[in-house]
Amino acid sequence: MATIPRTIHLVAPSGYCHNPAAAARGVARLQAAGHRVENSGIIARREQRFAGSDSQRLADINGLTQLNPLPDIILAVRGGYGATRLLPHLHYDALRACLADAPAALCGHSDFTAIQLALLTQSGIVSFSGPMLAGNFGAEVLSDFTIEHFWRALTSPKLTLEWTTVSQQVQVSGTVWGGNLAMIASLIGTPWMPEIQDGILVIEDVNEHPFRIERMLLQLHQSGILSRQNAIITGSFSGTTSTDYDNGYDFTSVWNLIRDLTGIPVITGLPFGHSADTVTLPLGSRGVLTVADSAASLQLSGYPVLR
């Protein structure tokens, strides 16, 4: 996985780890690669559907300020639901003093997006939307693509992602942000929603029908958020099945509608999100997006990396 052994500290601010075998497999793989995994006791923690009580899960994040030395990587066990409960109680000033510009990579996706965007908004902390312990490192078949992109993002001060998309001509730059679309939409109107001008919004989701994705994007549009973006990049949208009722209505229909309504380029096809193969994105970094015909590239810079 990586040539340099790292210290990886686990956090579980969201849902109960319903697949402990996968989490254990992820820990074993990381340890076999020479890394030190801390705080693995939280994997078994549970209260109702959550990975512990609100105070326990809150302590996972606020307690980072008490770690000395800081770990190299702070890795979420899984997503689910529960992070939103914690947002009013995070110690944003202390977390800023501890983590902003520090060589400690905060990594996760899905429900973890809420914490990542709140920290970006309130503390200026750039974090990484990428793999988590159970679903990615603990997958039955480990994705070489995902692991390679994870370590490259965490150790390279500049990163270029390349993929194939719908043919168009685009050249824009801006702040790269986003993550799970359901979590982004849930933050509208709250103090934890980033107010990013000239952004490159990257979105993904799972188990959401195209009409629900359209509804969330319309909420972002009608709230004035999309008008501040220079481009939208779509990642993985999986776990849905079309029916006869849809009559041809699909994700392509959604992307075309958003293009027509906003005039903003929508760049599809980035391998990102709830899929076996996913890139790792620094949220809050500087991005330069280029699309020439069907070849897309996103150049990333301006984010902290591991020493």
UniProtKB/TrEMBL annotation:
Question: Is Hydrolase given among the entry's keywords?
Answer: yes
What name does UniProt use for this protein? Muramoyltetrapeptide carboxypeptidase
What the entry lists under Gene3D superfamilies is as follows:
Class I glutamine amidotransferase-like (3.40.50.10740), LD-carboxypeptidase A C-terminal domain-like (3.50.30.60)
> What is the E.C. number?
3.4.17.13
Q: Ranges for the LD-carboxypeptidase N-terminal domain?
A: 8-130
Mind telling me which Pfam families this protein's record contains?
Peptidase_S66 (PF02016), Peptidase_S66C (PF17676)
- What GO molecular functions are on record for this protein? muramoyltetrapeptide carboxypeptidase activity
Origin species: Erwinia sorbitola
What's in the keyword line of the UniProt record? Carboxypeptidase, Hydrolase, Protease, Serine protease
**Source superkingdom:** Bacteria
Family statement: Belongs to the peptidase S66 family.
Q: Which residues form the LD-carboxypeptidase C-terminal domain?
A: 173-286
Q: Which InterPro entries match?
A: Carboxypeptidase_A_C_sf, Class_I_gatase-like, LdcA_N, Peptidase_S66_N, Peptidase_S66C, S66_fam
Signal sequence extent: none
